[in-house]
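Obj.: predict assembly geometry.
Materials: sequence records (below).
Method: joint structure prediction, all chains together.
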Amino acid sequence: MKEPEPVDLSPLDPQADAESWLRLTEATRLRVAAVLRDRELDPFAIVSGWSRPILAAAAALLMVLGAAVGTLGRSTTVRSSEARRLAYLAETSVLHGHAVTGAEVMGAIRPRAIRW
Amino acid sequence: MEESDAELVLRVREGDRRAADRLLGRYLRACRAVALATTGSAADADDVCQDAFVAAMERIDDCREPDRFGGWLLQIVRNRARNHLRQRDLRRGEPLDEEAAFGGPSPASALEHNELRRRLEVALGQLTAAQREVVLLHDLEGWKHAEIGERLELPAGTVRSHLHHARRRLREILTREETEP
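Observations (raw structure tokens):
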């Protein structure tokens, strides 16, 4: 199949009107800059953009730990018993080679927090 | 060494504006070519390609395969261009007819286009949408067959076939116009 010669499409070249193309490019660049600025102001957008699951997992762990710290901060009595449960959970985890889940951490904290 | 699309996409996700600029420089013309292939109007294509690129940056987290950013972006352009046509036809109270989009320039665009450009637009209107995309990306943007195939998700043979038929048809139409009184 012999390839036909290309037709000259240069009249359709957007850069034939260099000024107009520059305006379009600059306008687009400014709008994109605004989009990225909004992302900077929205930490959740950045977190959701993390591609590596380990980073997302670390963010989730931080949230769990934050909640745990918040709950532990309520009173000395609560803090003491919950610390014991957390220590027990950690010990069991080491002895049995079982990774502690977020649900287990929350489980160690919640019953006391609800009664309180 | 030139950064890959995947690297630039990851940097955009981290808020890197220079990476976004690189993608803009790499793809804005192609975006416009695909928008032009659908809308048939340079002015509409300018609006569509800008909106589509900005939308892509807003939704950059949705680009599941960053190494295939080009194809993902051009699909956004195509969808936006079709919506643009639909809205334009609704405003005019006409049914959507994508293939007829190139039927002829509007009175406003006729004023702004020179004669050669108008003739090319009319001739392109005689092609299928896929043929228009391929011939514009290859003969105007200088993309290789493989690049077009990868980004439009077409087999290499189909790209060659579209290009072959598009060029032949364009030449026929333009030659006929020249010989007819």
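Conclusions so far: Chain B touches chain A through 44 residues (CB under 8 Å).
To do: check interface contacts against the pulldown list.
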